[in-house]
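Notes to self after the Tuesday call (sharing in case useful).
The group wants a holo model before anyone commits to mutagenesis around the pocket. I volunteered. Ligand is tetrahydrodeoxyuridine. Logging inputs and output together so the record is complete.
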Amino acid sequence: MKRKKIEIDIQSFTYEELNASDRQLIDKARKTNEHSYAPYSHFYVGAAVLLDNGEIICGSNQENAASPSGTCAERTALFYAGAKYPDQAVKAIAIAARNDTEETEMPVPPCGACRQVLLETEQRFHTPIRILLYGKKEILLLKSVNDLLPLSFGISFLK
Ligand code: THU
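Result:
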């Protein structure tokens, strides 16, 4: 028997410790969760995606009474970015969530389906995506989707 261990790299910051461009991306995600349509979960998520050309594309979660028909903030933003700028690599994504009364204390990590879409985006453009997860207590930074979804299934298996 052999044991294999995977190490992932996560950095924790306060808002004040971040540089101006990361703060800007986070602020856009925080603002965008105000546009969520989440009458069922009352959990409002915003995502802001920074593209190689400097554009920032935002998206929020959009729910539906037939629940699988809705989608998460991350995929709203990533798919909109892909539809509008199909040739632009994604450099970074910031994610911020709130409930009816306040922003989350802890950073909210993306769901499994969004991780898979983030992974494919990273592999498609051969560019690591920086992931900023906002919480009032701390902000987590991952420097690649590989740190969010280790041991992943992706494009390479289909070649
Ligand atoms: N949600 C997101 O938009 N992103 C995440 O990373 C986690 C969950 C949404 C989906 C649903 O509208 C609500 O949050 C509760 O799960």
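Two things stood out.
Strands lie at 11-13, 44-51, 56-60, 90-98, 130-134, 139-142.
The first strand starts at residue 11 and ends at 13.
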